[in-house]
Design goal:
2 copies of one chain form a homodimer.
Chain A: E1 3-4, E2 7-11, H1 13-23, E3 28-35, H2 58-68, H3 88-97, E4 102-108, E5 117-119, H4 137-152, E6 157-163, H5 167-177, H6 195-209, H7 220-227, H8 231-243, E7 248-251, H9 255-266, E8 274-279, H10 280-283, H11 290-294, E9 302-305, H12 315-318, H13 331-341, H14 348-363
Helix pairs in contact in A: 2-3, 3-13, 3-14, 4-8, 5-6, 5-7, 5-9, 8-9
Chain lengths: 366, 366
């Protein structure tokens, strides 16, 4: 796979290269969209919290970490059941290394972060097995688009990330409702990807909503309302508003494909200005297939940050190489933006050092 | 008074000229801080709403007008009892003429705007006669400063405006608590400035708080908590965070002097990067004295947009020349920024034409 500095051109190579060149030396704004869904509390779905209720705290804690360099609504930082830290640690380290400004946008939260955040008028999401998962989808998309339009005037390009536990299951829900074959293809923050549980959850939601695979192919608003999560309308609206004017790097793993499908259905014209930015851990994941999903939707490029923790002195970071966490809070996109801003002068080794420095401070490790 | 294009150098002429030159050709971000206070509902205090309860809707409606070009939470636009439209009409016209991005920040609201807005963790304000007017002042200042730091990286400079009915009374409250002589000097949105009522209100608040004139000279947090409004910590925090990095134009009338006093007490170093931008109507107002207040606080320059509605074909705009409204929603600062962005290519005549065009659409006039 072709690489430019420590960024891999993972899909649609020429377009990926052109997109990366467009980012080079430019000043981005990083926007982190956060939200919560009860779907994350289904046993076995998510590794974002040690206990189901903890998933309500993960997004606000991630957002606090990005802006403050530490969490306020919890002690320490969000960790998996094995104690592996949130990917916000990667995003925060990358954004600080490259002095990239951050804005947090809420799509709907049960717990508010103790930092400034953009309120987009959404509510926390319900369990998708109800078939009635998200309120106000159209209104939130419109408000987010308005924010995106204005934010596009403040930066050369936008990097948009997300934090929402349970997000790959809701992604599978929206993709399935829209007729995109994603079963067995969405990623997981756990090494053992619970594909069966996700598929079963989505089937229950489709049934409860009176919908079936592909029945909402041209109705993305209803697809999110029934089977999505509140991060999606916030994220999709920001893309629609911003990508009409500037490039937008959608920073995330397979969850990005659901947002991509929504944007493609609502406003395909903006996709010429869009790329997905993820991590090598997602790009080379054998338990998921981001390219296989993206190919069904639109011809957008995928960039993957070649972050490598195999040589880390901390077991909590080395675990990423075993497929734990993989992506989230725009980690891959933040790393790519940091590298591109300085034309590769930030390398993966420098990034690892900065991440280890922050890991030591935040995890109390030596 | 010296002028550069249609901007008057109203105070500290050389510094004002230098500040304006620094703005020229640059790309600002306009931030509108909105909040509400029960103080506005004291009979005779404010012209921002026809009925006291209406003051809860004025700030969100102003914010909607800025971002959408129309209001959503009310029909039409905010008007004075005589039907004179909100100065947001001026701000919106100026910002759109010059393609300046807008962000709305809430310091604490009873009614939320139906647009994206930055939540800074504040609550609506109480009547200052209780001596216990604003919650969370220190926390809101800190969050706003964090937002300001990040926003400063997205723009060459910031223009910060406000919308809060009753704001000159709370300004008098904070100024008095801090020992700045402002009685008879704060402005009013009404042609007959109710100085006596404002002074009486502030005296009641000082007494209820167990404070007296000047007793909080070195405690601006408590001055706001007792006698201020929730716009102030949001605005002051944004200035403190942003002006450490980029120039900040504080866009407003005499309310700006209370924010200036707070910033001066908390972080005087940033004031070298600060100017006040207002309208000719405030600059030449004989019922108030912005320069007289500023001179007691800090040596910052004042710029005044030479907006002139005397030749307007609409009586609703001509009324501004009789001293109605005068300023608000950053009208003067927005006009100055629009002119400066294009080096004076936007003139006061062009601005009036654009305002009249929007007036006709929004007020249904011909």
């Amino acid at each position: 796979m072709k690489r430019i500095y420590d960024v891999l051109l993972a899909h649609n190579e020429l377009k990926a290269q052109a997109f990366l060149e467009e980012m080079e030396g430019k000043n981005p704004l990083f926007v982190c969209t956060i939200a919560t869904t009860e779907t994350a509390k289904i046993s076995g779905i998510s590794a974002a919290g040690k206990y189901p209720e903890f998933t309500d705290y993960t997004p606000p804690a991630d957002a606090e970490l990005l802006l403050l360099g530490k969490c306020k609504c919890i002690n320490g930082v969000p960790v998996t059941p094995e104690g592996i830290p949130t990917p916000a640690l990667i995003s925060m380290s990358a954004l600080r290394l490259a002095n990239i400004p951050v804005l947090v946008a809420s799509g709907g939260l049960r717990v508010k972060p103790q930092i400034p955040f953009l309120d987009l008028g959404g509510n926390p999401g319900r369990d998708i097995r109800t078939g009635n998962a998200v309120d106000n989808v159209e209104e939130v998309i419109q408000r987010a688009a308005l924010a995106g339009e204005n934010l596009a005037k403040t930066a050369d390009y936008l990097v948009i990330g997300e934090s929402i536990p349970g997000g790959t299951t809701t992604a599978l829900g929206v993709l399935s409702a829209m007729g995109i074959k994603a079963e067995g293809k969405v990623s997981s923050s756990m090494p053992e990807n619970p594909h069966g549980l996700k598929a079963e959850t989505v089937r229950a939601g489709l049934s409860a909503a009176g919908e079936s695979f592909g029945s909402l192919a041209v109705n993305p608003i209803r697809a999110i309302s029934c089977l999505g999560d509140p991060m999606m309308p916030a994220f999709a609206g920001l893309v629609i508003g911003a990508a009409a004017e500037v490039p937008v790097l959608m920073a995330g793993g397979t969850q990005m494909t659901a947002v991509l499908a929504v944007v493609e259905a609502l406003n395909p014209d903006v996709l010429c200005n869009v790329a997905i930015g993820t991590t090598r851990w997602v790009g080379s994941d054998t338990s998921s297939d981001i390219k296989g999903i993206v190919s069904q939707i639109a011809n957008v490029p995928i960039l993957a940050a070649d972050i490598d923790f195999s040589a880390s002195r901390f077991d909590g970071l080395k675990a990423y190489e075993r497929g734990v966490v993989k992506e989230g809070v725009g980690a891959g996109g933040a790393a790519i933006a940091a590298m591109a801003k300085v034309g590769g002068a930030v390398t993966k080794d420098m990034l690892l050092k900065e991440i280890e420095r922050n890991y030591a401070i935040l995890m109390g490790a030596k």
